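Run: sequence + copper (II) ion -> complex structure.
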Amino acid sequence: MNGLVIYLVIGFLTLAPALGWPQNKESYTIVIKNHHFDPAQLNVPAGQKIKLTVDNQDPTAEEFESFELNREKIVSGNKKITVFIGPLRPGSYKYFGDFHLKEAQGTIVAQ
Ligand SMILES: [Cu+2]
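>> structure
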């Protein structure tokens, strides 16, 4: 790398967080335990991207799924996944665990 390239790279790394990309997303975690989501209702800000970690503390696999958020992702037992959602309009968005539909129900509220 020549000097100019190094300056550009350093400049980018310095500016990226200030520009809100990609480190600056709001981060939230939903825990799965005994096939229930915690919190059952997660409040997030409307109008911005959200980084959602789904932390499955059960030994069994679950599938984080939401028609309203258009997301579907398997999380193995005792593993975590990351899901990016939004920017959301203000409102309620239901999600569920497709492998344990009766118990695993949750809502994300954007406000
Ligand atoms: Cu599914």
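>> summary
The mean pLDDT is 89. The chain is about 15% helix and 45% strand.
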